[in-house]
Amino acid sequence: MKTDYDLFIDGRWMKPGARFEVRVPYDGAVFGTAPKASRAEVEQAIAAAKRAAPAAAKLPSHKRYEILMKTATLMQQRTEDFARAIASESGKPIREARGEVGRSVQTLIFSAEEAKRNVGEMVPVDAHPGGTDRLGFTLRMPRGVIAAITPFNFPLNLVCHKVGPALAGGNTVVHKPASTTPICGYMLAELFAEAGLPAGFLNTVSGGGGEVGDFLVAHPDVAMVTFTGSAEVGKHIRAVAGMKPVTLELGANCAAIVDSDADMDLALGRCATGGFAHSGQVCIHLQRIYVAGKTAGDFTDALRSRVAAFRIGHPLEDASDVTSLIDEPNAARVTDWIAEAERDGARKLIGGERAGRATVTPAILSGTQPGMKAVADEIFGPVVCVESFDSIERAVEMVNRSRYGLQAGVFTRDISRALWAAQQIECGGVMINDVPTFRVDQMPYGGVKDSGVGREGPRYALQEMTETKTVVINLTGAPR
Ligand code: NAD
């Protein structure tokens, strides 16, 4: 399996001026190497995407469909290689990594299908007195060159969520993967080339966020920026992007409510998954659980037993449930936040210790306060805070006490309460009888408040990545 990549620009592999090592976060072993692109090299990628833009806009929908479908098929055939790359560079347990490849295949298929449905609509122009004798409709026009900037935690699927809809809509792309996880991005570019994507339609350039990313965002030939990552970088990008349309899929400190009438086994199983998948490094990680007062004690004890059973190990071992955080500074940050919460009166019921290079053992906190970092900020680690509530109104208030608003979960058998809560909770999606961590790739997905702007899911991303153009025909003088 190839793990050393060059820059992918204008359909060719180009030797970079500088390279960096990509390491397995769990043990620091070198997995591969990737280019550290210079500004001149990024400029070449943008120029290639710009040259290819007219051809991309003209490529018929059935061709866009065929290329996206072929890429999906090739990816499916190479599931194990992609899963090993995801597990190695991001530290995701291999079983979850295989799941990510399966989802990426689906994201490409949904994008292919959207290429065939990229339609505008009829506009009833003559509904206005001034529009008599006019016929109107809209076209969905490609925007041109789209800059796609992606994070480390889903190094394949989140790239497919940008590249798939962008190509389906007739755009060209310059992709900058996260510096910790660039290999999957290059593997995807390789697959698209094999599937027949013309030169220049997709260009991949890795390198530092501050240098490559900023340059891309500010470049006058980049028509749109689609970014997934932290709220801090997202805000910066919005400031640098000026008038360009920007989609921002940012972080969160997601919460679930477990009401007293909930199916407790269901809630426990889903909370154990939502709280600790990929060591909590998931944007819709379940960070806060609010449990109805009389059941809170039993729920917390049972969750602790499940957490105690997790196996910590190397990401390539099938038995591993938990591996490590992306790097040592993040592991240190998570244990610091836990220590700060304990200092201010919270109780650590299990875990929260450093182990190995960048591993933090899965932790449950209780007795926290809303202002603590472990509650108020995105912890992005294997930590859940469990607190009790005495009324559903109060529980919703606690969920909403956040600068973020990505997704939330509500466990209850009472449909009226569930729907009431779904309407009151301030976020992009509410999962009933599930954790906020639930996502299938065709659904509209995105946040409110500091969790971002715009929606992904191929159909919704395609709306953002195409421009509405209105066409009105003056029929005055036509035979009556
Ligand atoms: P990050 O913000 O540190 O980096 C994301 C990307 O931005 C990387 O490619 C990075 O190199 C680049 N970047 C950094 N500085 C830049 C700059 N000045 N200009 C342009 N690009 C720059 O995020 P991360 O640590 O890789 O990922 C974790 C974050 O991503 C978490 O906050 C998580 O919640 C969020 N996330 C959100 C979603 C979602 O869909 N809402 C999905 C996954 C991850």
Describe this structure in words.
The chain is of the alpha/beta class and 480 residues long. It has two domains: 7-250 and 451-470, Aldehyde Dehydrogenase, Chain A, domain 1 (3-Layer(aba) Sandwich); 255-432, Aldehyde Dehydrogenase, Chain A, domain 2, CATH 3.40.309.10. The chain is built from 15 helices and 24 strands. It has helices at residues 39-58, 61-77, 79-90, 94-115, 157-168, 183-194, 209-218, 231-241, 264-276, 293-308, 328-343, 373-376, 392-400, 415-424, 458-464; strands at 7-9, 12-14, 19-23, 30-35, 122-123, 134-142, 145-149, 172-176, 202-204, 224-228, 246-249, 254-258, 286-292, 347-350, 354-355, 359-360, 363-366, 383-389, 404-405, 407-411, 429-432, 448-449, 452-453, 466-474. The strands form seven sheets. Strands 14-17-18-13-12-20-21 form a seven-stranded mixed β-sheet, sandwiched between helices. A six-stranded mixed β-sheet has the order 9-8-7-10-11-23, sandwiched between helices. It starts with 6 loop residues before the first strand and ends in a 6-residue tail after the last strand. It binds nicotinamide-adenine-dinucleotide.
